[in-house]
Amino acid sequence: MSFLKSKLATIFYHLMVWTVLFSFPYLLSSGQNQAIQAVIVFSWVPLSFYVLIFYTNYFVFIERFLFTKKTILFLASNAILIAFFIWVNNQVKDYFFHHIFIHKDNHDSFKPSRNLFIYIDILFFIVPVVFSIALKTTERWIKTEAERKEALTIKLESELQHLKYQLQPHFFFNSLNNIYSLVDIAPEQAKQTIHSLSKLMRYLLYQTNNEKVSLISEIQFITNYIELMKLRYTENTKIEYDFSILNNDLQVAPLLFISLIENAFKHGVSASQETEIIFKMKVEGNSIDFSTKNHNFPKTDSDKSGSGIGLQNMEKRLQLLYPEKHQFTAVVEDGFFVVNLILEI
C-alpha cells in the first residue's frame, strides 16, 4: 500500500511540474490567434520533445546505459535522439514561417536564420537529459540509502538478540556459582537464594522480552540481585547502594546495568582483605547517571570468571541501543575501580 501511494505521489508531482511548464507560455501570451500559434510552435512543441527526451532517459537510457557504465552508448543515444528532435523542431518552425506567419503578414524579413538558434536549441534539449540524470540518481540514492538502513536495522536487531541470549545464561551461571558456595556453609541461605533466584529468572523470562522496561522495574531487579549477592559474602565486604529516582515514567533497555554490577562483584571482593562496593544511581530529567565503585582486584588469566564477557556485551548494547546518547568511563583511582555510565533517554 505504501509503495502504491509513493508511486501515485511521484506521478502526481511529474504531472504537476509539466502542467506548470506548459501553462506558463499560454498564460503569458496575449490571447490572439497568432500569439497562440506562436506558443504552440515555440513553446509547446519543444516542451513535448523535452518530455520525450526526459522520459526516454528516465525509463530507458539511464538504467540500461549510464548505470551499467556504458557511457559512450549513453552519450551516442542521446546525441542521436537530440539531433532528431532538433531537426523535427526546425521543420515545424519552417512550416510555421512559410505557411502561417508569412502567408498572413507577408513579412519574410521576420524569419530568423536557422543557424541563429541552433546552439541554443542544443543546450535546451540537453537540459531534460541533465534533469533526468539528476532525478534518477537521487531516487536511486534514496532507495539505496533506505535499503542500507533497513539492512542495518535487521543487523542491529539480530546482534541485540544475540547479546541478550548471551547475557541471560551468563547471569544464570554467575548466580549458580553463588548458590554453590552457600550449599555447604549455609544451607538455609542457599534455599533462600534459590527462591530469590527464581524471582530474578522470572523477570528475565517475562520482562526482558520487551524492547523497553520501566526504570523502576529494572531497579527492583538489580536491587534483588545485590541482596542475593550479599548473602554470599562476609562482613569483610561492605556493600552499599543508593538508587534514588524522581521520574517514574522513564523506560530503559532491560538488563542494562547488571553487567556493571556483576563486574564490581567479580573484581571488587577479596577473601583476605576488607573491601567496599558502592552502587549509585541519580536521575535528573531524562538523564540517568549510574556509577559503581569497588576495590580493584584484577583476575588472573587462568581465572575464567574474569573473562569480561558481561562488560563487552554491555558496551556493545550501548553502542547499538544508545548511539551518541551515552557516556561510559572506567578508571582506576587510589586502588578503586570506578565506572560511570550516563544515559540520555
TrEMBL record:
Family matches, as InterPro entries: Bact_2-comp_sensor_kinase, HATPase_C_sf, Sig_transdc_His_kin_internal
TM annotation in the entry: 12-29, 35-60, 72-88, 116-135
Domain of life: Bacteria
Ranges where the Signal transduction histidine kinase internal region domain occurs: 158-235
GO molecular function: kinase activity
Keyword set includes Kinase: yes
Keyword Electron transport included in the entry's annotation: no
Record Pfam families: His_kinase (PF06580)
Keyword vocabulary terms for this entry: Kinase, Membrane, Transferase, Transmembrane, Transmembrane helix
Record protein name field: Histidine kinase
Organism: Flavobacterium flavipallidum
